[in-house]
Automatic annotation (TrEMBL), chain A:
Keywords noted in UniProt: Transcription, Transcription regulation
Name of the protein this chain belongs to: IBH1-like N-terminal domain-containing protein
Pfam family, one: IBH1_N
Gene Ontology BP, a term: regulation of DNA-templated transcription
InterPro entries linked: IBH1-like, IBH1_N
Domain IBH1-like N-terminal: 11-76
TrEMBL record, chain B:
Keyword Transcription: yes
The protein, known as: BHLH domain-containing protein
Keywords, sorted A to Z: Growth regulation, Transcription, Transcription regulation
Lineage, uppermost ranks: Eukaryota, Viridiplantae, Streptophyta, Embryophyta, Tracheophyta
Source superkingdom: Eukaryota
GO MF annotations, alphabetized: protein dimerization activity
Pfam families reported in the protein's UniProt record: bHLH_ILI
Residue ranges annotated for the BHLH domain, each copy included: 5-59
Organism: Coptis chinensis
GO term, biological process aspect, one: regulation of DNA-templated transcription
Length: 160, 93
């Protein structure tokens, strides 16, 4: 199904993601004291999710608009987090009124591009055709991310 | 395969053609499980974009869910010593 990410290619996206993510998981495990309460479990799952997103964006690198955007957001969020613990600002809801091309704007809105812009990292400032291309790449990467994470879960789940 | 339609929407000099949009929308349609097998149907671009949003959201939820399970598993497994095995396993799947 996913014929672009053959697992025999050592530099494939899947491999680059998997290596980074596993390294992150190791770090997370070593950094944590034994997790007992629900609160810490929830917090660690958020950390893991962030690590997964970061690993993927980093595996893609600066080649893509969405990955650059995602990396920027992650890094600035990390800086914010360092200064003010609970002030994780979700900057996603930027009302972007920079559309100055009338006809294409209307067409896009009819198509529902606005919702897509909020979901794809950096989508708000993308030109429409780019948004579609970035979305396609983003979906492929998300699929890879889910696939690898599922593989790891399967590997470590207790076999009944 | 795409014959240049005579109706190309020019706007602000960016020259986005309807064909270009259609091509990309079709590519997106191929990626969405719900719509993938319906390429013979005439699916509107708006529908494709809407389903794309829904699909991406469902992928995000999957990532959330997998993160929770990994968080549970991390306590009980020794991932550090098994890194090489994990990677080898991943790469042969």
């Amino acid at each position: 199904m996913d014929n672009q990410k053959l697992s025999t290619n050592p530099t494939s996206l899947k491999t680059r993601f998997a290596l980074r993510f596993i390294r992150s998981l190791t770090r997370i495990k070593m950094a944590n004291t034994p997790v007992s309460s629900m609160g810490t479990l929830r917090k660690r799952s958020q950390t893991i999710k962030l690590a997964a997103d970061c690993s993927m964006a980093s595996a893609v690198g600066s080649k893509r608009s969405w990955s650059r955007s995602a990396l920027l957001k992650i890094r600035s969020r990390a800086r914010l987090h360092a200064f003010a613990k609970e002030k994780v600002v979700t900057k996603k809801k930027k009302k972007c009124n920079r559309r100055d091309v009338g006809e294409v704007v209307i067409q896009q809105e009819v198509m529902g591009a606005n919702e897509l812009r909020q979901i794809v990292p950096g989508g708000e400032s993308m030109e429409f055709l780019n948004l579609l291309k970035e979305t396609a790449h983003y979906i492929k990467c998300l699929n890879t991310q889910v696939e690898v994470m599922q593989n790891i879960v399967d590997l470590y789940s207790p076999s009944t | 395969m795409s014959s240049r339609s005579s109706r190309s929407r020019q706007s602000g000099g960016s020259g986005i053609t309807e064909d270009q949009i259609n091509d990309l929308v079709i590519k997106l349609q191929q990626l969405i499980p719900e719509l993938r097998h319906r390429s013979s149907d005439k699916i509107s671009a708006a529908r494709v974009l809407q389903d794309t949003c829904n699909y991406i959201r469902s992928l995000h939820r999957e990532v959330d869910d997998l993160s929770e399970r990994l968080s549970d598993l991390l306590s009980t497994t020794d991932i550090t010593s098994a890194q090489a095995a994990v990677i080898r396993n991943l790469l042969t799947q």
